[in-house]
Design the sequence.
């Protein structure tokens, strides 16, 4: 397959949108961490502790997700520079690396979403237990 300089340029908006989405997830999670930390300081209980453990895992995954996204963007830029040097094989390789890193970022993002659903299940599980106890 022959690619030219416009091919990696097509990834720019996709990668930057992914990075923005990861950053937004990070900021939302950071706010939740602060809220649950205050709850834990107020009244430590098992539910809050489970959520905090979940947050720690998710923050770690988001850190790697953002790191891999930045690497993907970097390799995309390097690929475009290599095109200017007219080193097509090397440009193809760096473009492939950029795509692989982007896929890794998406996989990490899916994993974080999976853990996010687990956090919601903890919250909903408490509601179910309280409902059953009140009957």
Sequence:
């Amino acid at each position: 397959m022959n690619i030219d300089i416009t091919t990696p340029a097509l990834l720019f908006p996709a990668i930057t949108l992914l990075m923005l989405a990861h950053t937004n997830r990070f900021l939302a999670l950071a706010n939740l961490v602060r809220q649950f930390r205050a709850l834990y300081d107020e009244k430590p209980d098992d539910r809050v502790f489970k959520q905090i453990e979940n947050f720690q895992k998710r923050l770690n995954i988001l850190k790697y997700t953002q790191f891999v996204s930045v690497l993907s963007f970097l390799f995309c830029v390097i690929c475009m520079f290599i095109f200017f040097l007219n080193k097509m094989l090397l440009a193809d390789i760096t473009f492939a690396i950029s795509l692989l890193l982007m896929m890794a970022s998406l996989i990490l993002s899916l994993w974080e979403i999976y853990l996010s659903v687990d956090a919601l299940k903890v919250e909903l599980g408490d509601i179910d237990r309280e409902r059953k106890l009140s009957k």
